[in-house]
Design a protein that fits this description.
Layout: E1 2-3, H1 6-9, H2 37-41, H3 49-65, H4 79-90, H5 95-102, H6 106-110, H7 114-121, H8 123-131, H9 143-160, H10 163-177, H11 184-204, H12 208-222, H13 224-240, H14 242-258, E2 264-269, H15 272-282, E3 293-299, H16 302-315, E4 317-318, E5 324-325, E6 338-343, E7 349-356, H17 357-365, H18 369-372, H19 378-404, H20 408-418, E8 423-427, E9 433-437, H21 442-449, H22 451-455, E10 457-462, E11 465-467, E12 479-483, H23 500-531, H24 545-558, H25 563-571, H26 577-590, H27 597-605, E13 618-620, E14 628-630, E15 642-647, E16 651-656, H28 660-668, E17 673-674, E18 676-678, E19 686-695, H29 700-710, E20 714-720, E21 728-737, H30 740-752, E22 756-761
Parallel strand pairs: 1-2, 3-7, 13-18, 14-16
Antiparallel strand pairs: 2-3, 4-6, 5-6, 6-7, 8-9, 10-11, 10-12, 15-16, 15-17, 19-21, 19-22, 20-21
Helix pairs in contact: 3-5, 4-5, 4-10, 5-8, 7-8, 9-19, 9-20, 10-12, 11-12, 12-13, 13-15, 14-16, 17-19, 19-23, 20-23, 23-25, 23-26, 24-26
């Protein structure tokens, strides 16, 4: 049994420690990088001679392209691509990735075109370089907008080919290691970007070596004084706790030797940043952080993991609630290990991680293990393939989010949500395991199953019991989703969903519905305005050449790309229906069309034939979506005299005729008011506000609720004065009623209730 010296490894970065090594580990921070092709060539022993020759050609091309360029430190710029290629070679990536690493800045900084790269090195290499190239910032109004678009481009390229992000992470790691020559402002900006985006991506893909180093370097550049102070405290603590560590190491050594289990035990120490984060989360000082040191135990076979766990639990008492089995249920990035925290003989907590060699390879290099072990044994490859599969699942989800999100900043927001490292593991009714971010709800689970399940979700069951859709899930929950064919996403879900996939899908659905509703409303308004000119709305059939040409001419005049876009603009109030109708009437007249006397007469007197032409005005029945809304200032209900205001880009807002806000809008924009009317039989209840003066007596609220319920109405919301009087309190109720007559019945019932002194509807 080989037990490594604990003290020698306390501050070393985690490296690949599998016995059958296939690669050298990445260099530690501050270590000399490959600064010549000879140094890089030493790492390329896994390539054949023809491939090494291609890499050499790419180096010569990059060297020539960057000739005369220097880094902020004064070094020739080519030292950076060489160092990045050296990190990529540590992962044993293929020749295309190595060439792309050497030329990753050629398009951005040297004016090399993608066509040149395709002709010289082939399309696959050119695609990798293009995916790593930022977009031209001159195209965007702000630096943030250009940065968001560049991130989106890189992430989508990464979804198509994971080598893009591996090269990018190597590029970012070398930049972080060599930032000392930059200005403090630039160092801080790059470090913050790394901590927010690149380190979480590395963690999401299981690249834990890079993840920890990127976090550590970012923390050092963002908060140099805090980093230095904590590093000194850890150095002192190492000396104070050396006796504890040596005693634990010796006892663990004897335990495994007695059981005749061949293990590889190594010491590890938490990074300065992870200790700082724990102090911030728990609001404690450094002295209260106990688990600074830990042990990693690598065993030959899977079953040995559980045997080793049993031996450790016999040796020391485990801390309740601190055991996690990531072998049975791997993390979302493919990580597998047993974690247990034990109480040492001196009462301090010591964490142990137990895993096999393939698990250790995946734990340290994640998705990159696919290349490290693709020529290795089947045993090694199984862990790497699991990391590859889980990484690919997340990468594919990026494409789903892209399909539903057109705005780059919104896309980046969704991605940041999905980069949260913490996860919960829940089960479907058929015992399939799903990993979701901590804080995910039943709606997130529904969208994780399938977009259609999420769209039609109406209820959920947790462990067999009905729960609200906003209920947060916990590890081990069995979740069942109830769907209905006619259901659709609720805008309120956006307030509690926790995954980028769910959020982007809901927003996409709502935008699509708003577009369709706006188009329908715009068609109604244009038809109504055109009838005032004595004309009917022309059809949009493509086989009707005259109508098609007419619409083309109208859209050119309006500046819209299509008839549908023009109707949407009218429905949202961006264009006035009467003005568009007059222009359309003019175009029809130029083609010999004449107003119809019957249509003019019917429109003038408000008579309509249901079969011959649409109803005049817009009919409100309660089924309207986001495009047609009832104004919150006056809360109209059926029976009220109403009129519609077409806001600029807001759709139609319905006000009561006596609403003071509506009157001010009418005086300012009279041309934006259109005729609206209630349907004969509205499809739902409508909300309106009432004011009550109530005696302060026992059971008053119960009596009010009983009176409202007896009148077949509902109370949606109750407000009361923050400082009630001694004898009476004013309440404001939001009631759901059928119409104005129903409201009158409810008010009479409330006035008859003993505690009510006054009851009236609130009017603006």
């Amino acid at each position: 049994m080989g037990i490594r010296s604990f003290a020698a490894e306390l501050l070393l970065p985690a490296v690949l420690q599998a016995k059958s090594r296939h690669t050298a580990p990445a260099a530690a921070p501050g270590a000399p990088e490959a600064v010549s092709f000879a140094a890089l060539a030493e790492k390329l022993d896994y390539l054949d001679k023809a491939e090494v020759k291609l890499v050499r050609e790419a180096y010569k091309f990059a060297d020539q392209a960057h000739l005369g360029q220097f880094r902020a430190s004064g070094e020739p710029y080519i030292t950076h691509p060489l160092a990045v290629a050296g990190l990529v070679a540590d992962w044993r990536l293929d020749v295309q990735a190595l060439m792309a690493a050497l030329m990753h800045d050629a398009m951005e900084d040297c004016g090399i075109t993608k066509v040149e790269l395709i002709e010289r090195f082939g399309a696959p290499t050119a695609e990798l370089v293009d995916g790593l190239t930022k977009l031209d910032k001159l195209q965007f109004s702000t630096r943030e907008e250009g940065q968001a678009e560049s991130f989106r481009k890189m992430l989508l390229a990464m979804a198509r080919d994971v080598r893009v992000i591996l090269i990018k992470l190597a590029d970012r790691l070398h930049n972080m290691r060599t930032m000392s020559a930059m200005t403090p402002t630039r160092r801080s900006r790059i470090a913050r970007e790394t901590l927010d985006i690149y380190a979480p991506i590395a963690h999401r893909l299981g690249l834990n070596m890079i993840y920890r180093e990127l976090q550590e370097l970012s923390f050092e550049h963002l908060y140099p004084w805090r980093h230095a102070a904590l590093a000194k405290a850890i150095q002192r603590a190492r000396g104070f706790r050396r006796d504890i560590v040596e005693r634990v190491r010796t006892e663990v050594d004897k335990t495994f030797a007695g059981a005749k289990i061949k293990v590889d035990v190594s010491g590890r120490e938490k990074t300065v940043y992870s200790i700082y984060r724990k102090m911030r989360q728990k609001h404690t000082g450094f002295a209260q952080v106990n688990d600074i040191f830990g042990f990693r135990i690598v065993v030959p076979q899977l079953m040995d993991c559980y045997l080793a766990l049993g031996l450790l639990h016999q040796l020391y008492k485990p801390v309740p609630g601190r055991f996690k089995d990531y072998i049975a249920i791997p993390k979302v990035n493919g990580y597998q290990s047993l974690h247990t925290t034990l109480v040492s003989p001196l009462g301090t907590a010591v964490e142990f991680q137990i895993r096999t060699e393939p698990m250790h390879a995946v734990a340290e290099t994640g998705i990159a293990a696919h290349w490290l072990y693709k020529h290795g044994s089947k045993h090694h490859g199984s862990g790497a393939n699991e990391a590859q599969r889980l990484g690919s699942m997340w990468l594919k989800s990026l494409l789903d989010i892209q399909d539903e999100t057109r705005d780059a900043a919104e896309f980046l927001e969704h991605i940041k949500i999905d980069l949260v490292p913490e996860a919960v593991y829940v089960f479907t009714p058929k015992s399939k395991i799903l990993a979701l971010p901590r804080g995910a709800t039943a709606v997130d689970f529904a969208y994780a199953i399938h977009s259609d399940v999420g769209d039609r979700c109406v209820a959920a069951k947790l462990n067999g019991e009905p729960v609200a859709l906003r209920t947060e899930l916990k590890s081990g929950d069995v979740v069942e989703i109830v769907t209905a064919p006619g259901a659709r996403p609720n805008p309120g879900w956006l307030n509690f969903v926790g995954t980028g996939r769910a959020r982007s899908r809901i927003r996409h659905f709502l935008k699509t519905m708003e577009h369709e509703e706006s188009r329908g409303l715009g068609e109604k308004l244009l038809a109504q305005a055109l009838r005032a000119e004595g004309l009917l709305l022309p059809s949009d059939q493509t086989d009707d050449a005259k109508s098609h040409a007419l619409w083309q001419q109208l859209t050119r005049w309006s500046g819209n790309r299509s008839r549908a876009d023009l109707l949407v603009d009218i429905g949202l109030g961006r264009k006035i229906a009467t003005i568009v109708a007059k222009r359309l009437a003019q175009l029809i007249a130029e083609r010999g069309g004449r107003p119809d006397a019957v249509t003019l007469t019917l429109n003038r007197f408000g008579v309509a034939d249901d079969v011959a032409m649409p109803m005049p005005g817009v009919v409100i029945d309660g089924t309207e979506g986001a495009t047609v809304q009832l104004a919150s200032c006056c809360k109209p209900i059926p029976g009220d005299e109403i009129r519609g205001y077409l806001g600029r880009g807001e759709g139609l807002r319905v006000h009561t005729a006596e609403c003071s806000t509506g009157r001010r809008l009418a005086d300012r924009d009279p041309e934006r008011w259109i005729a609206v009317e209630w349907a004969e039989q509205p499809s739902r209840h409508f909300e309106t506000s009432v004011r009550l003066l109530v005696k302060n007596s026992k059971g008053a609220l119960a009596q009010l609720a009983a009176a409202v319920s007896a009148s077949e109405a509902d109370i949606s919301h109750i407000e009361m004065d923050s400082e009630p009087q001694d004898d009476a309190t004013e309440l404001r109720l939001l009631l759901a009623v059928r119409d104005r007559q129903h409201l009158a019945d409810v008010l009479r019932a409330l006035k008859r209730s003993p505690p009510v002194l006054r009851a009236s509807r609130i009017k603006p």
